[in-house]
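Re: Re: token formats

Sure, here are both.
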Amino acid sequence: MQKTEMLFGLPWLSTKPERAIFDELQFACVYAAGPSGGRPLRLGYASGSGLRETLRTLQKGSWKELQIHHIAWTRGDLVASRIADEAAAMLDRGGRRLVGSWFDVTAELGIQAINIATGKTGITTVTHGEMLEQVRRIRRERIEKAIKRA
């Protein structure tokens, strides 16, 4: 059994075939990340394969260890950017933007903004666990299909 890789507090895909399926499905995410237990909070989006690098870059400039407080997966960067932009616009109306994509809000408020934006746009998202399960289900199905052909 393989050790589960962790990415800023979340379990991640641990095999090359899983990561290949993940890339094939063109997942993108909207996330709320920030220091554990405090402000500020970054709301953003990333292509699935770009999330790791985005967060590593952010970590270099942070005085505390960052964690992902919330993540919602969808298909494609354009869709994810629409949700992130809508969530940021809500927080802007409250005057909560600090600089760039950083906001002076709690994780709970950032999560609410993402959830409301998702509902307003009508875009379907899945949780991190659901995304992992979809990828692993497809991998199992492909393995079973290959075994039957053999």
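Second one below.
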Amino acid sequence: MNEQELLKRAVTLTAAAYQLKLAERLIENVEYARINKDQFSVNYQLQSGVLEDIGEVISDIRNTIQDVSNDICPD
């Protein structure tokens, strides 16, 4: 694998890190509302599908990491 290919994989992993940060912020928002006993906000966020969104982001990140791993070191 040459330097250009490694750079491409690094960019892919950086994008995954930004996706993870987004999921982290969604979780922080729910946790902040829970800590402040804002039940309306907690219920609204949970009913809006935020957990599904977080699950999708985590799944995408998992797939991205696996793809990069496979590219760097194929079985």
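The first helix runs from residue 3 to 35. DSSP finds three helices and no strands in the chain.
- S.
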